[in-house]
Amino acid sequence: MPRFPLPRTRTTRLLALAAVVVLAAAAVVWTTSGSGRPAVRTQDAFVAVPAAPGSAEQVRIDTTTYYPERTPAPAVLLAHGFGADKTGVGAQAEELAQRGFLVLTWSARGFGRSTGKIGLNDPDGEVADASRLIDRLLSGHDVATGPGGAPELAVTGASYGGALSLLLAGTDHRVRAVAPVITYNDLAQGLVPNTATQTEPAKTPAAGAFAQDGVFKKSWAGILFSAGSGGAPSAEAPEAGQESSDNGGAAGGSGTSPQAAGPSGRAQQPAADPCGRFTAAVCKAYTELSTTGRASAQTVSLLRRISPASVTNRITVPTLLVQGENDTLFGLDQSDATARQVTAAGGSVRTIWYAGGHDGGTPGPQLRGKIGDFLWSALTGDGDPGHGFSYDVQGTLRANGTPSVRTVSADTYPGLAGGNTERQQLALTGPAQEAVRPAGANPASVSGIPGLNGLASSSSSRLSQLFGTDPPGQGAQFGTQPFDRQVVVAGASTVRLRVATDPAHPLPEAVLFAKLYDVGQNGSRALPANAVAPFRVTGLPADGTPVEVTVTLPGIVRPVETGHSLRLVVGTTDQSYSVPPQPGVFRIGLASGSALQVPVVPGTSAGAALPTGQLIGIGGTLLAGAAVLTVVALRRRRAHDVDPKLASTPLVISGLRKQYGGGFVAVRDLSFRVEPGQVLGLLGPNGAGKTTTLRMLMGLITPTAGEIRVFGHRITPGAPVLSRIGSFVEGSGFLPHLSGQANLELYWAATGRPAEKAHFTEALEIAGLGDAVHRRVKTYSQGMRQRLAIAQAMLGLPELMVLDEPTNGLDPPQIHQMREVLQRYAATGRTVVVSSHLLAEVEQTCTHVVVMHRGTLVAAGEVGELAAASGEATFRVDDPAAAAAALKGIGGVSDLETEDDLVHANLGGLGRAEAVATLVRAGVAVEQAGPRRRLEDAFLQLVGDD
């Protein structure tokens, strides 16, 4: 069992006491807030509804009602997403019921245990079903009423359920508020988008072109169709209205009933049907799209009829639109269109963009809490449902893991009530270029893979690099100048392009794909949200005269850092879309005077709101520790020492000395400086004082004299600036009975910093342990422990990283990997200090070196400069043997070596020019002469036999 040292000083005892007080009070708050949660009673029932208007045939809808502690209560209809059923929203329904809502969930037609055919939210099908469920809910007298006896009733849901929410709000006057999540406005534009028009888009941040005759989104459509093309649910179910269970507090839905199950316990499936559980009209539309890649007028009419856009002009109730910033299915343009249409109808709109979506995940607890707050306020009048706009900004500094997120809030969604979205005009450069579409559109560009985009953004760099592949010759590229400051792109950028066909092989139209890459200073590029803008340009003149169009790029939220640039790529293929198979050549250029118009939405950072019931307890917690912490702060104020001139300098060591008891001096008068972006190697033989220096740097021991400053802050034991350093100095101290991953998570939790800032994915990738991260550390080899320790030092992506002998126990391939990791890490502007005895590794890895000997500094500088000071020279000659013989005859020349056409020699006191002259007189042609840069030779000269 690990031993924990007790505080030894008065200051640390006070800090420990404060921690105990705070933790004890926090435990009381946690216990209080987590206890007494109201029980939720559920009731399942099948409800019979007409299969079609005027039809005697019935469809049975499987429902679950969640009852709060008290009724009557405000009611919420909670619809599920496509391919799921009512059980998929059970946890959210229970959350809402515990807040005091009466919640009704159900499985839509064709899903779960509900019967009927899937009509994709047909007004005569799924929407009419929801209205009848409202009838049934109101008949129970459990729904609270407002002024005039109107029921307090709202509807919400995500994706498929979000569209149902809007369609119901536009057709049933009893709906008093609506909160759709990651859904569509126009299904035709969601599945067959065209982002090119002759006119400018609306003035809102993410307004899409929504042009006709788009490009079929075949990958996403195929996934959706397959989710509904399995066998139909069993028609066997309890009679209409029969209560099938009353769980009295259980929060789940119902499973498959015995009547509907076969011998294996699974629902019986009828014979295979190409249309699966879809209606004939939907099946016909999909067949047309998937075989032709084009939408006929009949298909567009169908998709329009079952889209919220058909009813948004009648929605006047408070509306909360929640849309994902990582969504290649239904982008920000869908939410933007709904916001404009509902506002024009007289409804009040609040918009939230969050760091999720169909590619990035569903709303978490905090966002679900905001949705619940909105619904409660809109129904009861308690609080303000709000009219503002907020969006999440994800950090970009990462290898492949989850970045930190901050939320920016603005008073209004720009452009809704007059005015325009602020747009920055960025000059694009690049000539008109020819782009080839190969026969069969193969190979095709890869922008993203539905269902895997989120995995790629948080997985290995190799996987993410696959999702930005543009085959050579298939695209035109245009770029901006590097940014001189950070710019947060918030919405859909636009650009004016000119497109022409090849007169030698004319085609009447072009199908193209525009992407906007974020390009780093090192040339690396990232495709934000895997977003691509497909567009079709028709009516191309056969003589090659270009057609000019305005292209609206995908809506994104992306901080483009200082020194980065944007690159527009317009390609001819994309594997996620239906592309004409005929080969062709297109000429793509920028319109005269065209600039990239980038939307920016200024705002203020918004913090997360705390539950009101916990504020008093938390306030008491803070007050309880405040007295103790105040005493500590007063005692530590004298130790607070900052030099503002060094605020941007990672490390400055001045006059450092460490003398131990008995008079032994481990470090004496040591001074050096480390700048941002450097990889500094600390070299020296055993006993040189390297580890002692690093221990003082980490505040583990106190210097006898001198000082160490990190970003201007003087280092003392426990100094706050130490949180900006990642280190591996004192050994890992891993708990052997826990796994590698658990050790990293425990270490980070002990720092008290948010889990989302740890970057566990990058750390585990760097460790390179594979599945071994889930094994107990006691089973690890020394090399595995070393790699885990290095990953621990990189948690949080510290600005200064300090590693003591990081390659001990690593094999050559792992050492090579570590070299690349450290160099990439420093390339981001961060700084690395490495203590090592492997001279070759320091020479290949580090940019600068400090050599210590017997506690003192004996040399410092760039690796190349130091290596060149060894006195050895290298000559590239035509006859190495003759050259070696000529040099051997010169007194003082030694250590002659030949290597291919190179001759290495220690010239002693002889100048290189005189040596060259000797070689020429001997008839040897000298092509090149220079110092032999070997750090090992310089090191041995500096430290002698030690």
Précis, in short:
This protein has 946 residues and is an alpha+beta fold. It folds into five domains: 10-39 and 613-639; 41-193 and 233-271 and 306-410, Rossmann fold; 423-593, Galactose-binding domain-like (Jelly Rolls), CATH 2.60.120; 644-863, P-loop containing nucleotide triphosphate hydrolases (Rossmann fold), CATH 3.40.50.300; 871-943, Alpha-Beta Plaits (2-Layer Sandwich).
Question: What can you tell me about this protein's structure?
Answer:
The protein is of the alpha+beta class. It has 5 domains: 10-39 and 613-639; 41-193 and 233-271 and 306-410, 3-Layer(aba) Sandwich (Rossmann fold); 423-593, Jelly Rolls (Sandwich); 644-863, P-loop containing nucleotide triphosphate hydrolases (Rossmann fold, 3-Layer(aba) Sandwich), CATH 3.40.50.300; 871-943, Alpha-Beta Plaits, CATH 3.30.70. The strands form 7 sheets. A 12-stranded mixed beta sheet has the order 8-1-2-4-3-5-6-9-10-11-12-24, sandwiched between helices. Strands 30-31-32-27-33-34 form a 6-stranded mixed beta sheet, with helices on both faces. The protein has a 5-stranded antiparallel beta sheet with strand order 7-20-16-22-14, with no helix packed on it. Strand 25 (651-659) and strand 26 (665-674) form a beta hairpin. Helix 16 (760-767) runs antiparallel to helix 17. The relative contact order is 0.08.
